[in-house]
Specification:
Radius of gyration: 25 Å
Shape: elongated
Strand content: 5-15%
Oligomer: single chain
Distance between the termini: 24 Å
C-alpha cells in the first residue's frame, strides 16, 4: 500500500504510467493546476466573469526527488506552464483563454499522448498488428468459404463491410495517434454514419441472398472482427519490469484511498494538514474523487493557502 504518491511524480506521470497508450491527456489541466498551486508555483482565485484567475508566483522547478520523475514529462508540463504565462504575463484566466492558447494546448496534449504511447513495450505494437491481420484474414477466409459453400458469387459484396471496418480503424485509430482526427470532433460524428452505411447497406443486401445459417456465420465473423479491432487490440498493453513496478505503486495508492477507513485518513491529515490537497490532483487523474468525497466530507480540513475566494474552505471536488 502507498499512502502518498511518489514525491517526484506529477499528475502527468500518473496519467501516462497508469493508463499507458489509452491515456486521454485533454483533461489533465485541472489536476496540474492544483498540483502547481499546492507546490507554490501559482495561486488560484475566483473571477465571476473570467473563470479562475491563475497568478504565477515563480517558474516551475524540477522535483527534488527522482522517485517517479521523468524528465520528458516535465518538459511537457513546463511547456504548458510557459504557454499559460508567456510574454511576461503573470496572470491567466481560464474562461478568457484565447484561441491561440487552445491550439497550443492541443499541441502539448498531442505530445503527452505520444509520450504515453512510448510506455507500452514494442511487443504490444507487434501483437496489435498481428491481431488485426489475423482478424481480417479470418474474416476474408470465412467470406470465401461461405461463397463457395453456397455457390453464391454475390457474397463478394460482403467485402465492403470488411473494408469499412479497416477504413474506420485507420481513420479513428492510427490518424488519432498522430493528431489527425481527435476524439469528440465533428469529423468523427460524420464518419461514423458514413462507415455504417458503407459497410451496412452492402452487408444487408448480401445477406438477403444467403441462407439463414450462412448469414449467421458471416455476421458472427464480422462482429468478432469488429470487437477484436476496436476493443480487444486496444487493451493490449505490455510493459517492462520498471514500468510495471511503478504501475503497481499507483494501483497500491489508489487501492489504499478506496479502502482506507476514516480514522486512518484523519491520522494522515493530522500528521500533514496538506495531505488532502497533496493527493487531490492524483485523485482526479485516477477518477476516484467522487468515491473519496464522502470520506473527506467528515474530516475537518483547513482551506489551502493558495486558493483565494469565498469558496476557500469548500472541498474542491
Amino acid at each position: 500500500m502507498e499512502y502518498v504518491p511518489p514525491p517526484g511524480a506529477s499528475p502527468v506521470d500518473f496519467l501516462i504510467q497508469y493508463y499507458g497508450a489509452s491515456a486521454e491527456p485533454r483533461e489533465i489541466f485541472n489536476p496540474l493546476m492544483l498540483y502547481w498551486a499546492e507546490r507554490g508555483f501559482i495561486t488560484v482565485e475566483e473571477d465571476c466573469k473570467r473563470g479562475l484567475k491563475l497568478t504565477k508566483i515563480k517558474d516551475l522547478e524540477r522535483p527534488k526527488s527522482k522517485d517517479g520523475f521523468n524528465p520528458d514529462t516535465f518538459e511537457i508540463e513546463n511547456k504548458l506552464f510557459e504557454t499559460l504565462f508567456k510574454d511576461g504575463d503573470d496572470v491567466f484566466y481560464t474562461l478568457a483563454a484565447q484561441g491561440k492558447f487552445k491550439s497550443d494546448y492541443e499541441s502539448i496534449m498531442s505530445d503527452c499522448k505520444k509520450q504515453a504511447k512510448k510506455i507500452t513495450d514494442g511487443k504490444s505494437r507487434k501483437i496489435k498488428i498481428a491481431s488485426l491481420i489475423v482478424s481480417f484474414a479470418t474474416l476474408l477466409i470465412i467470406v470465401a468459404v461461405v461463397g463457395i459453400a453456397t455457390e453464391n458469387k454475390g457474397v463478394i459484396i460482403c467485402i465492403f463491410p470488411c473494408a469499412a471496418i479497416l477504413m474506420a480503424k485507420l481513420a479513428f485509430g492510427f490518424s488519432d495517434r498522430d493528431g489527425g482526427i481527435p476524439k469528440g470532433s465533428a469529423a468523427r460524428f460524420l464518419l461514423v454514419p458514413f462507415f455504417c452505411m458503407f459497410g451496412g447497406v452492402p452487408m444487408a443486401a448480401g445477406f438477403m441472398f444467403l441462407p439463414v445459417s450462412a448469414a449467421a456465420v458471416l455476421l458472427s465473423a464480422m462482429l468478432f472482427c469488429a470487437v477484436t479491432v476496436f476493443f480487444v487490440s486496444e487493451k493490449i498493453d505490455i510493459r517492462d519490469n520498471a514500468q510495471l513496478k511503478f504501475y503497481a505503486r499507483i494501483c497500491g495508492f489508489k487501492q489504499f484511498l478506496l479502502l482506507a477507513e476514516k480514522s486512518k485518513l484523519e491520522m494522515l491529515v493530522e500528521e500533514d494538514p496538506r495531505y488532502f490537497y497533496n493527493i487531490l490532483p492524483y485523485c482526479y487523474v485516477l477518477d476516484i474523487t467522487e468515491k473519496l468525497k464522502p470520506k473527506f466530507d467528515r474530516i475537518a480540513l483547513d482551506g489551502p493557502a493558495w486558493y483565494l475566494g469565498e469558496l476557500r474552505e469548500t472541498l474542491m471536488f
